[in-house]
Amino acid sequence: MANSTRWPTVADFPDPVAADHVTYNPSFADLREFSAPLETTTEFGAPSYVSEYRSRSADRTVNNVDGSFDAEDLDVFEQGIDWVNDASNDVLCVDRVVGRHEEVAAVCRLFVPKEYGRIALAWAKLLEPAPEGAAPDFVTVQLPDAADEPRIRVLPDEGLTTVLGSDYTGEAKKSFLRLFMRRAKQAGGLGLHAGSKRVSLDDEDGEREVGQLFLGLSGTGKSTLTSHGLWLDDPEGAEMLQDDVCALLPSGTVAGSEGSGLYIKTLGLGADEQPELHSAATDESAVLENVAVDDDGTVHFDEPRHGRNARAVIRRDYLESSADDIDLQEVDQVFFITRNPLMPPIAKLSDAQAAVAFMLGESVETSAGDPSRIGESIRVVGTNPFIIGSEGEEGNRFRDLIADLDLDCFVINTGVVGTDDPVDVGVEETVAILEGVARDTIEWAADDSLGLTVPTEVPGIDIDRYVVADHVEDFADAHSALRTERQEYLAQFEALDDDIVDATY
């Protein structure tokens, strides 16, 4: 497309207050009523819906920073604009705010067909209402019936996203979080696909607070670790601030994004294993999506009837571990969640090694990404599939930020250690490790075979059971092959600084 072409902007949409064909900021009850024909009411009184698309269409999502747009891409936006402006259409418009911090907060406006009010209902319960009369910074149009297959296009500089052909709620959610993270980068920080929590301690070192960040792909335990209270007793405790997306700012503040709710995975959600999340998901305030629900309303969280990416929007108000605020004033520790069996339960990283962990983004594919590849080993830079711009520059920015802020960084394995006679890293072990890191009671030593700093003593668990080399046949060869393969992977990022590649473990 010629450079003289004017890209559409948020100004091309009508004022929803003045447009008679637009239903603007209806109540939750009204949004639910619009989608009544599609609802199955659960035994708890909550609405449950089944979508045609049940995961993000990442391979059909393109932005004009990282991709080349032509007339067909422009037509995607024009379809959205024309539909919203057409007075014969029943248009639904909802405004919300992503974030509270003045440096990155943005007003978000979502347009959807009225009959798809369920998308707006779930999305609106995640974010807080926008100030009355506020102009939008970001606009998304989602038209599920406008294409035979998904076509999702993003104009980051214009703050505009158009989603054609998908009825998945996650497309609306991520359309705004994607731009929120970019705004963080423009402010000198970095947007992170991460959960944040505040741990309050009162021990021999006195009263203090420890700020923690958890980076991980959806479905790898990020929500579980972020919301876990670490079994601390009053006056100690742990509070979740954010579950999904944060903005690490140069000041050391971690700005949250979603102020009202969480979009959690529900497959296997149990009252014993995750009592808080289960309680919130079984409240009438929740919105269920692709969860197995019988005609009589009986809910089966353990059944993948509609795929393995079953979800629920739950309200923060129903989580005891949820803080009132969403911004972490000062972060101290960063954890990268992995499921790589050649990694120990936890390792402490140098700044360059932390940037390596950021770039590797090692995990396993989950139903939130590509359901056809569930369980396969994957790499996603920053465990963040929503990066706009150079991924190598993101790695350099991350290294510089953690160095300037003097943060402690760790890689934590929530899967199994070893490939031969593997040993599980259970919840009790993980919680003991996280508490030990927060209290600074773990003893550390260099492990030359791994090239990492690993624990030699962790209060409450037998860490000697988790020596990687004891559970991998021909460990030296396996680790050497992994390190070589990792270096080759990192070498593809031309903008990534050499000192990060050289720090590969």
Write a compact overview of the structure shown:
By secondary structure, this protein is α+β, with helices and mostly antiparallel strands. Among the domains are: 10-38 and 55-189, Phosphoenolpyruvate Carboxykinase, domain 1; 339-502, Alpha-Beta Complex (Phosphoenolpyruvate Carboxykinase, domain 3).
Strand-helix topology:
Elements: E1 22-24, H1 28-34, E2 40-41, E3 47-49, E4 61-63, H2 71-85, E5 91-98, E6 106-113, H3 117-124, E7 128-129, E8 138-143, E9 151-155, E10 160-164, H4 169-186, E11 190-192, E12 194-203, E13 206-215, H5 222-227, E14 237-242, E15 246-248, E16 254-256, E17 261-265, H6 275-281, E18 287-289, E19 292-293, E20 299-300, E21 311-315, E22 333-338, E23 346-349, H7 351-360, E24 362-364, E25 377-379, H8 391-405, E26 408-413, E27 416-417, E28 423-424, H9 427-439, E29 443-447, E30 452-457, H10 475-490, H11 498-502
Parallel strand pairs: 1-5, 3-18, 4-9, 6-8, 8-10, 13-22, 22-26
Antiparallel strand pairs: 2-3, 5-6, 5-7, 9-10, 11-15, 12-13, 12-14, 15-16, 17-21, 18-21, 19-20, 23-26, 24-25, 27-28, 29-30
Helix pairs in contact: 1-3, 3-4, 7-8
